Amino acid sequence: MNGSVKSIFSIHVWLITWMTLTLVYTYPESTNKDMNFQLRLPRMNLQNKTLKIASVTRIPFQNITPLPDGEYIEEGFTFEIINQLASFFNFSYKIVMPEDNTFGKLKEENGTKKWNGMIKQLLNKEADIAAAMFTITEDRKEVVDFTKTIYLDGIDILMQHPKESDNTSALLAPFSINVWVMIIVSFFAMGPVIYAMQVLQRKLVKLDETTDRRNRLTLAECVWFVYAGLVKQGSELSPIYDSTRILLATWWIFTLIVTAFYTANLTAFLTLPYYKTINSLDMLLQHPETTWLVKYGGALDAAIEEGHGEIFQKLRSSFRMGYGKHSTSDEEARSLIEKGGYVYLHETLSLKYLLQESYQRSNGKCLLALANQNFFQKPFGFAYPKGSPYAFAFNEFRQCNLVACVLTQHHSWQQERYIANPINPGTMCYCNTRRWRPF
Fold it and tell me: Chain-centre distance of CA 287, in angstroms?
């Protein structure tokens, strides 16, 4: 075969031995020396030491159930990672939950700003690890250390499933505002243009009295002809001048095309159901009758309180005006949304879980819906105290597991395992902007 062949795949051969992962061969061969590297599993034996792990319930990542004896039952993706670490580094752990059950944000107390939640536990050395999916922000990175990114997620809007609205506005829906304006302008302009053309023609061409009388059209007759053509009605006007005839024929062709398109589009708009919904954050802020909720103590709550950036300045102003409120739990937010008049701003994966939970509780009815508006996308990971002796070793172990395909960073793995029977994105539980219209 003449010419070069472009490779559409690559092969990486890893030699997995005790405590070591070594990249021994790649295809096609790489000239980049950085490709040939060795990952060495960290050597650390904690000799069954008990570590204090801060955490809060945040389904679908972790669920912590308190027992009567003060202990906890923990489950979820987060604690699968913790259990792997405990098994490899030979340690046990004890759950310590923060008093306010929050992740942590800067809160002003007695004129000074202090951290609360799990961040406070790490700062006070009350916990060795915060095993929860923290949003990794710059403010938090100044006071604690984080693992390497476990996954990325953004903020979405969870709302009550909108009810089908009437189709009164469908009469105007087939055309855009600009098209309607041009049709109206053409309607009012065409009559005077036809009248002016036949007046000008009479002055330029001399005809006998009988023929000239047939071309003496009044302005009212010209306007009536334009209207009759628009509504597909006939007319008895029969001008002799070619220029006037061309104008009349042009108007008839124009009206035929416009009415044909309008009829076809109107049929489609009347056939499909329409729903009034909030499909953007700006639209939410323009409707003060809808109260938005944010999880207290979370990264979004802190970002709104700080007000850095145009979006968060708008949210902070709206919150101070009473249009936004704190939610202490996802369950509280879900309950308020189902009652009506509320929406919930939260991480997308958590909202999908609430959506699925509501779907199952209602026996297959979509009581809630997602707006599919992703903003404030950030990485997520565990948190450690600054200078933690475990941070480096735990991070390296997790990195080796990722390379060896023991763990995965993809949302789908977490969702398929912890969210039973995920809702098909094509169902009406998800907003389709082509079928849903704004308020």
Answer: 19
Report how far residue 236's alpha carbon sits from residue 238's, in angstroms, rounded to the nearest whole number.
6
Of 428, 416, 318, 417, nearest to 372 by C-alpha is 428
- CA dihedral (79, 83, 84, 90) positive or negative: positive
351: nearest Cα among 158, 130, 95? 158
pLDDT digit of tens for each residue in the chain (439 aa)? 444 444 444 444 444 444 444 444 444 454 444 444 445 556 677 888 999 999 998 877 888 888 888 888 888 888 888 988 898 889 999 999 998 888 888 887 777 888 989 999 999 999 999 999 898 888 899 999 998 888 888 888 888 887 765 566 667 778 888 888 998 898 888 888 888 887 887 777 766 555 555 567 778 888 888 888 887 776 666 676 777 778 888 888 888 888 888 888 887 777 766 666 777 788 888 888 889 999 888 888 888 888 788 888 888 999 999 899 999 888 899 889 888 889 999 888 888 888 888 888 888 788 888 887 778 888 888 999 998 988 888 888 877 766 554 444 434 434 444 443 444 444 445 444 333 333 3
Is the CA virtual torsion 56, 57, 61, 65 positive or negative?
Answer: positive
Which of 275, 427, 277 lies closest to 352, judged by CA? Answer: 427
Q: Is 322 helix (H, G, I), strand (E, B) or coil?
A: coil
Give the containing element (helix H, strand E) for 301.
helix 299-306
Q: Round to whole Å and give the CA distance between 83 and 92.
A: 9
Kindly write down the DSSP assignment for every residue of 132-168, as one continuous string.
EEEE--HHHHTTEEEPSP-EEEEEEEEEEPPPBPP-G
Q: 60: cis peptide before it, omega within 30°?
A: yes
Query: In this structure, is the dihedral angle defined by the CA atoms of residues 332, 335, 341 and 347, taken in order, positive or negative?
Result: positive
